[in-house]
Amino acid sequence: MSRAIGMIEFKTTPAGITAADAMVKTSEVEIVEAQTVCPGKYIAIITGDLSAVKAAVDTAVTTYEDKCIDSFVLGNPHESIFPAIYGTTQVEEISALGILETYDAASIIEAADQAAKTAIVDLIELRIAKGMCGKSYMLLTGEVSAVEASIERAKELVAEKGMYMDSSVIAHPDRRMIDTIL
Fold it and tell me: Where in the cell is it found (predicted)?
């Protein structure tokens, strides 16, 4: 069995909660996060076996298609995705800091997965639409060239979906800035 992560993003809370309920009734999946986010949208992130996650997300999207903003299923997500979502990543040192912001919630997880698989970087945080009017961002660190390559790949991915907003790479950020992030 391969591990997978899936997500739905809905325009309204009632549709999102109903869709999330349908997902867990469809397949043996675990809810990682399910909640209303700014500006009144609803997200649900699930994990489980790839076929179960795919069936659950397909059910939610198909049944509530008119209210769905975006969705995805990722098979074999990078192992740093979950700690970054939970905010439990432990980073000892930041050589370079990469930041990427998207217009939506779903594309940031896909972008983070690609970034982490592009070069040797550590995901620090995935802020998924909380307090950001529906936008999301990720923070990652590593050597400057690795961070640049990872951010560039993530930028390309979200730009294809029209969800890219902004990004930057800071080589050797000041300790005072790092302290505000960690």
Answer: Bacterial microcompartment
Q: Please check whether residue 164 is in contact with residue 136, taking contact to mean a CB–CB distance below 8 angstroms.
A: no
Rounded to an integer, what distance in angstroms lies between the CA atom of residue 123 and that of residue 142?
9
End-to-end CA distance of the chain: 35
> Please, which residues have CB within 8 angstroms of residue 17's CB and are 6 or more apart in sequence?
34, 42
The answer regarding whether domain 4-75 maps to CATH 3.40.50.800 reads no
Q: Give the residue among 19, 45, 126 at the shortest CA–CA distance from 80.
A: 126
Start-end of H helices in 27-118: 50-63, 81-86, 106-118
Amino acid identity for residue 20 in this structure: A
- Rounded mean pLDDT of 135-158? 96
At residue 87, the pLDDT reads 80
If one looks up domain 80-179 in CATH, what number appears? 3.30.70.1710
pLDDT band at 2 (very low <50, low <70, confident <90, very high): low
Residue whose structure tokens are 């930057």: 168
